Automatic annotation (TrEMBL):
Native organism: Coniosporium uncinatum
Domain of life of the organism encoding this protein: Eukaryota
Protein name: Uncharacterized protein
Length: 259
């Protein structure tokens, strides 16, 4: 599992194109050691945002997406959904997180999406279309720290702790900012059963599973997601399929599973 260091105090949000994602010498994909710096000194992104010499790679590359609020003038989803930036190391994650607007300060109808690189946060994406999501809505926005909750879920995702090794189910995580609630969700590749039509689609997450095995994998993800949110036993996290949500015309389709 990738070890993710704790953050320092968030800085003021800055324009995304000014975020230092890689060392100034341009070795963006190279994991360097203190010895490589020439003087043996460890320099992290927190010490020097332009000339750090240590990077800790994540198991997967991730992309941050943002959905801006509709203008009310007939915007379509593709116009509202914006790809922000991709990263593949712990240092890059914190460099981005500490320089974007906190969820608590986003305007209503905004969303952040953190998905594995190459997967768009859309139901129609080939890697999502047979999947679903676990979600929970926090209806009293004043009583929760949404920034802390969203951070914990993102860390669980990039640290690969929401699922077991080789499960291959977690596609990404999302937070929705709405007038009456915040909602956080985890998107999965399947709904716990083989894809329709046979073929390669019957191998969920890289290994063949029965329906019972597939559902148990999803249930484990749901339990870990619930734990990452710090919910108590009486608070229910729901799972629904993207196809059901699309047919219902809403993200609030009838739950297939609960934990």
């Amino acid at each position: 599992m990738a070890e993710v260091a704790p953050p320092q105090a968030p800085q003021e949000p800055v324009p995304l194109d000014t975020i230092p994602i890689s060392p100034a010498d341009g070795t963006s994909g190279e994991v360097k050691t203190p010895e490589d710096s020439g003087d043996g000194e460890t320099v992290t992104v927190f010490h020097d945002p332009d000339n750090f010499n240590v990077k800790h790679p994540l198991m997967n590359s991730w992309t941050l997406w943002f959905t801006k609020p509709p203008s009310g003038k007939g915007d379509n989803w593709n116009e509202l959904l914006k790809e922000v930036i991709s990263f593949d190391s712990v240092e890059e994650f914190w460099g981005i997180y500490n320089n974007i607007t906190p969820t608590s300060e986003l305007v209503v109808k905004s969303d952040y999406h953190l998905f594995k690189k190459g997967v768009r946060p859309e139901w129609e994406d080939p890697q999502n279309k047979h999947g679903g999501k676990w979600s929970y809505s926090f209806k009293d926005k004043k009583l929760i720290n949404i920034d802390s909750l969203w951070l914990h879920v993102m860390l669980a995702a990039i640290g690969e702790t929401l699922e077991d090794e080789n499960d291959g189910e977690v596609m990404g995580v999302v937070v929705n900012v709405r007038k009456g609630f915040y909602r956080i969700g985890v998107w999965t590749r399947t709904v716990g059963k083989p894809f329709p039509g046979g073929g390669d689609g019957n191998v969920a997450g890289g290994k063949g599973r029965s329906v019972e095995q597939g559902k148990e994998v999803l249930m484990k993800i749901g339990r870990k997601f619930k734990e990452s949110l710090g919910l108590n036993e009486g608070e229910v996290v729901e799972f629904s399929g993207h196809t059901d949500s699309a047919h219902a015309g809403s993200t609030r389709a009838k739950a297939k599973m609960t934990v």
